[in-house]
Design a protein that fits this description.
The chain has 148 residues and is α+β, with helices and mostly antiparallel strands. It has one domain: 2-Layer Sandwich (Glycoprotein, Type 4 Pilin). 41% of the residues lie in helices and 17% in strands. It has a four-stranded antiparallel beta sheet. The relative contact order is 0.15. The mean pLDDT is 80.
Amino acid sequence: MKKVQQGFTLIELMIVIAIIGILAAIALPAYQTYINKAKFSEVVLASSTYKLGAEICFQEQGTLIAANCDNGVGGIPALTAADAGVVAAASGNISASGALTTTITMIGLAGELGQAANVTYTLQGTSTGVGSPLIWTKGGGCLALGFC
């Protein structure tokens, strides 16, 4: 009588382990990018307060010059302790660069964001004139890394 084979051969087990290894090698970098993008979303979210403040100030003042609409002036908040946990304090600000243009710059705080640390996120708001809305253009190092 012949004995019935039971179990798997060594080669079959090695093939299964190789397939799992290949899938893990493909999935791990994608997962890391996903994690960094999720962490950086806190920086993007922190900029929304400044964006709203700039839009309200522009509608009320009709201009974006620094005397009227700047960091901590004209209803635009200054950097708070809540934002400082995610955003580098010196860089989370608004700089009014002209009567119809403003720039919000946020930089991810080192240590809190892993690979997303020290990555910049900028929003540039430009209007064609008084009564026209601000058109926002995002930029910074986060675009090249796919974080924003």
